[in-house]
Amino acid sequence: MKLESADVPAPGAGELLVRQHAASVNVHDIYVRSASYSSLDLPVFSGLEAV
Q1: Is residue 40 within 8 Å of residue 32, measured between CB atoms?
Q2: What is the DSSP letter of 37?
Q3: CB atoms within 10 A of CB 18
Q4: Which of 4, 7, 10, 34 sits a CA distance of 20 to 30 A from 20?
Q5: Average predicted confidence (pLDDT) for the chain
């Protein structure tokens, strides 16, 4: 994993933009990235836990 900058599109109708200050990588994220647990299709953003 690596930290990268990305453009953030404006939210569309019925959407909400939330500013996220921190995120963690939990066991679920590690399993998804290692293909041990395929609950999500890659590519996907890690950090299901956020503040």
Answers
A1: yes
A2: S
A3: 6
A4: 34
A5: 77
